[in-house]
Amino acid sequence: MASNETLGGSIADASSPDTALLEALVPGYRIISHFFMSYLKIDINGYLQILIGFALLVGCIKYLHPTAMENISDLIISTAEIRMEDEVFNYMMYWISRQSHMKRTSRFLASLKFKHDPWADSDESDFEDEDSDDESWDGSKSRNNTTTTTTTTFDDYWAKMMNRDKYKSINFTPSEGSHYFRYRGHLIKLRRTEEQNRPRNFGRNERLWLSCLGKNPEILRQLLLEAQKAYIERDGNRTLIYRAKRDYDRSFSWIRCMSRSPRPMSSVILNQAQKQEFVDDMREYLHPKTRRWYFDRGIPYRRGYLLHGPPGTGKTSLCFAAAGLLRLKLYLLNLKTNGLDEESMSSLFASLPRRCIVLLEDIDTAGITKTRGKTVTPGDNPAIPAPNTEISTEGDFDESSKDTITLSGLLNVIDGVAASEGRILVMTTNHPDKLDPALLRPGRVDMSISFGYMSDNDIKELFASMYRFIGNGPRQANGPVKEKVENDEDSTREQEKRDVSLDARISNLCVSFAQAIPTGELTAAEIQGYLLNHKDKPEAAVAGVAQWVEEMRKNRET
Ligand SMILES: Nc1ncnc2c1ncn2[C@@H]1O[C@H](COP(=O)(O)OP(=O)(O)OP(=O)(O)O)[C@@H](O)[C@H]1O
Fold it and tell me: Which of 275, 313, 315 to mutate to test the pocket of ligand 1 (most atoms within 8 A of CB)?
């Protein structure tokens, strides 16, 4: 009977104006209230005023002092903000995409892996692709999920590659919004947001927010350090290349555009003494003692190099090889980039890491020559592979390039009072005579290296470096890389014999090849171009070289 009374009372309460209002606001409230009353003997209507009061209080605080809520949450939550333009964003995205709990998230962004996603900038996958491409082409076992196949002809190989390319790998990352996961026993919230109303051709602009409970953000720091370690370890000793990218607010920042296997210094044909001097000078400059020496004497700690010579003689190649050798990041800047002015260039230089190489290519064509103010159309350099066009958005601007760098602007940036210290600046030009002496004075250019047409020795060296790899698979500068054949001495001896005979064969051919080419007339790029037509056939290269030289001469005359 008592329960009936209670039930009767609860039903009566449920039909009160308050309850009716709540039912309208929270559908199902009447049933919930009924449930509490019947089974738990709790009349939640009694707490109603407290609940409504609390909700109103929170609403008022939010409305009147939007920052107050932030302050309150700051007391109990630690948050790290990560911006897309910062490399930490790449660390996090790379780390996230490798976490099994993130793979299980029910809301995710599925996108094809593009090279312009720096966290998936394909270095790794490209490299794997290259390896497996080689493998299948050699006719040896090639990986396939379930089967093992052998391909020997180009058609087989190509069909397989094209089929594989159709199925580009899909990248899964947590979608916009909040995601929760546990890291080292702590609950972490990851929020991903994207800036809306952004012009399409400027790409995305995202932010990540990492939060944990408590005022101590230590666990977030640990997570970010772990992400950084994972990202950097992935690069190994590869040469990282950055380019300046213009954002839609017209500011510029460096964006990582690719990483490449380091180019061996031995593959750059240049007078040995000059090459050694260049590398030794860089090494000495980077030594901590040198740094102290500069600081003690109040001399700005900077070093500049000018590499000059005709196109295709190895200027960029040397710079790229030096970056690989010294494991420095390479920052490429084209002074003809639309919208690049002195201010943006200063901010780019200010954001350089302490130790790096900045490469300013073709400075003579950038409006900073003795005849100032001219602009020229940009050109690419084959020594460093062109980045994915989607990264380099400089071309997306159709405004004419009004903002050019003036000579005084450039001088200010490279060694003005506010100029950055610690970096190595390498400038290249085909016309050193066109440059203003102010740019060339010591302190701005500390060493000049002249590149020229190929000498007799250079030609032999280039020929040998091109055919060092034929027949026996990859060979190092000092000899072939021998396959590891355990307990098979005969096979090793055979291999050595083959190497010796290849070396002798190439040495003889080098001489004949160099004899047919006039010294000081052709560039390394031209000779390399010819040899590329005879990749595995050094004899054929030698046989056809005289005729090729004839044709080159005729072409030059016309
Ligand atoms: N000295 C060299 N040793 C080895 N390879 C060279 C050399 N010079 C040029 N090459 C080859 O020629 C191509 C172009 O070289 P690179 O871009 O370094 O020349 P560059 O002097 O910088 O040309 P540009 O003045 O047009 O920028 C590259 O593929 C490179 O491998």
Answer: 313
231, 243: one domain: no
Q: Which residues line ligand 1 (CB under 6 A)?
A: 267-270, 311-317, 381-383, 428, 430, 451, 524-525, 528
Q: Which domain-ending residue is among 202, 235, 268?
A: 235
Nearest residue to 361 via CA among 402, 333, 339, 387: 333
In a domain, 72, yes or no: no
Calculate how far, in angstroms, residue 381's C-alpha sits from the geometric centre of ligand 1: 8
CA neighbor of 195 nearest in space, from 85, 269, 323, 44: 85
- Contact between residue 93 and residue 206 where contact means Cβ atoms under 8 Å apart: no
Residue 444 lies in domain: 239-450
ipTM summary value: 0.98
- Amino acid, single-letter form, for residue 87: E
Q: Residue 114 has what pLDDT?
A: 54
Q: 120: CA distance to ligand 1 center in Å?
A: 29
Do residues 255 and 146 share a domain?
Answer: no
* Integer Cα distance of 352 and 384 in angstroms: 20
Pocket test for ligand 1, best of 306, 335, 528, 530 (most atoms within 8 A of CB): 528
For ligand 1, atom 25: residue with the closest CA? 311
Q: Using the mean position of ligand 1's atoms as its centre, give its distance from the Cα of residue 382 in Å.
A: 7
Ligand 1 centre from 465 Cα, in Å? Answer: 14
The CATH number of residue 409's host domain is 3.40.50.300
Most ligand 1 atoms within 8 A of CB, residue of 317, 426, 450 to mutate? 317
Number of domains in the chain: 4
Q: How far is CA 258 from the centre of its chain?
A: 4
- CA–CA distances in Å: residue 44 to residues 25, 31, 40, 48, 147: 16, 12, 10, 6, 65
User: Which residue's C-alpha comes closest to atom 8 of ligand 1?
Assistant: 314
CB 314 within 8 A of CB 437: no
Q: What is the mean pLDDT of each run of 10 residues along the chain (558 residues)?
A: 42 58 74 80 76 79 69 81 88 87 76 59 43 49 46 80 80 85 92 76 79 91 95 89 83 86 93 94 94 91 94 95 95 86 87 91 71 40 43 38 71 76 91 89 91 94 84 46 52 69 82 92 94 90 93 84
Instruction: Tally Cβ neighbours within 10 Å of residue 10.
Output: 20
**One domain, residues 171 and 253:** no
Helix axes 456-467, 538-557, angle to 10 degrees: 130
- Token digits for 103? 């793979």
Q: How far is the CA of 312 from the centre of ligand 1 (A)?
A: 4
The residues, any chain, with a CB within 8 Å of residue 556's CB and separated by 6 or more, are: none
Atom of ligand 1 nearest to the CA of 319: 18
Q: What residue's CA is closest to ligand 1, atom 29?
A: 383
Q: Judge if 188 and 117 occupy the same domain.
A: yes
In a domain, 69, yes or no: no
Same domain as 276, residue 185? no
